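Please check this today:
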Amino acid sequence: MTETPAPSGTVAHPELLAIYVNDHIASAAGGIELVTRMIGAHKGSSYEAGLRQLLDELRQEKTDLTATARSLGLPVRQYKQVAVWIAEKASRLKLNGHVLSRSPLSSLVEFEFLASAVRGKRSGFETLRIAAEVDPRIDKVLLDSLIDQANRQFEWATDVRREVAAQVFGGDPAAVADADTDA
């Protein structure tokens, strides 16, 4: 790959940024599918309201990422979103000890994945925020807000993941939270 200098006031390697932003838009689409399914599985539980809020935020984040791509003149690749949608559907076929019913392990794995995905999403927002330093078309204020939101989402998903782990296997989720503050 040859390095072509980017015009002044724009990001270097816009072709790579197009791939990167599209990957994050596709990931947002997958997150929306996962959280929608999780809402159905946790209807009436103490987790439903948090999942609904997360779903609304994920939809807005996908809209924000799409708008960012368009403001940069980057194409939005629908095929990536379709591929992630299919992958999310296929992930439901995992072996979890139950064939015809939902395993308690399913909730734990989903919340673990959700917490990890939120952390990855936050990294993506941070990367775009870094790029915003050289390209004024990228909204710094929006990205700062999305980073803060992802931090809050991660804390919530982590707390829930710990609760669900204790429900599935026993133990005290506060023991790990206490260890976090010691580090």
